[in-house]
Amino acid sequence: MSQPTERLSRRAFLIAVTGSALAAACQSAERLSPTVYTPDATANPLIHAPSPAQTLPPALPDANFGTLTYDKPILTDVANLFIAQYDYRNTPALDARTWSLRVDGLVESPMTFRLDELRAMPAISDVRTLECISNQTGGDLIGNLEWRGVPISEIVARVQPKAQATHVKLEAADGYTTSVATEWMLQPQTILAYELNGAPLTAAHGFPLRVHIPGLYGQKMPRWLTHIQFIDYDYRGYWESRGWSNVAAMRTKSIIHTPSENAVLQAGAQVVIQGIAVAGARRIVKVEVQIDDGEWMSAALVPSGATPLAWTQWYVMWTFPAPGVYRIGVRATDETGFVQQAESRRSFGAAFPSGTDAIHRRAIRAT
Fold first, then answer.
1. Average pLDDT, stretch 37-44?
2. How many Å apart are CA 186 and CA 180, to the nearest integer?
3. Can you tell me the distance from the alpha carbon of 280 to that of 277, in angstroms, rounded to the nearest whole number?
4. I want to staple 172 with a disulfide (CB 3.0 to 4.6 A). Which of 149, 163, 176, 338 is the partner?
């Protein structure tokens, strides 16, 4: 990157989804999912006006209420990146000396690549966001890291996919499978990644190789990648066959990171409201913050990478004038003109089947 980054080690990103939680998220396969990106228009309205008499559970004072940290780019530590997989009993421990990637199917020249061969090819290195499709409104299943790997164009030039190939099937060493349309896979910025934050992938995060496809949720980016197959049909993998979106395109989303939920702040003191916004491969052009039912205020934007693939950080300075309970909201606008409008239903189901773009709101108390 052209500017320095600060490594972030926060509880906000330290989360591993349990196998039982993911199993609960998988609704019946009879419940079909949409195949295009659309706003979360089904969310129920949420009345968010606070009352001076409203009370919150006891909470400790927020010592960082006045600390501005999102004015400089932030990376997520790999150790704190969320982990979500379909089988938590099976985390492959692969040997780079014997591992290989097979690329075949509807191609002119099927090939097998070793890790050292991939690392010897021209590489792309940039900052990108990774988010789980099941990430709830304001959730922690998201991270921003520096990725390095082989652009898919290097592989395509060697294997030469045939014109009739409409989809690409991806297979991993743990048995996970999914597929994407060739238009997604063959984007110039799609990479086969072997490093995160300047170091080789860890076993938990896909060593020796994983894929990053711009604009899609992590559901479409298998770790421990072993097989890329060009096909002429729409293959549905593990999560898609259980009702999750077959496209899994990232929705426009903004998240408040501080102050924390139910934080106790000092009335009359300046508070820094700050967080992040993402929109897949679309650029964030505006973030606005609302206090109770007041006017939406524009936030300062701080890109954390050179492309829209990285999250955009934002912050607003605000003084809560008097003691009481307040409700903070945030919404983002992307470069297509889409503005977040839906209100959260505050349940895991809000993310099913294609993610959520509901507005994140957070209650705090001033004393």
1. 36
2. 10
3. 10
4. 176
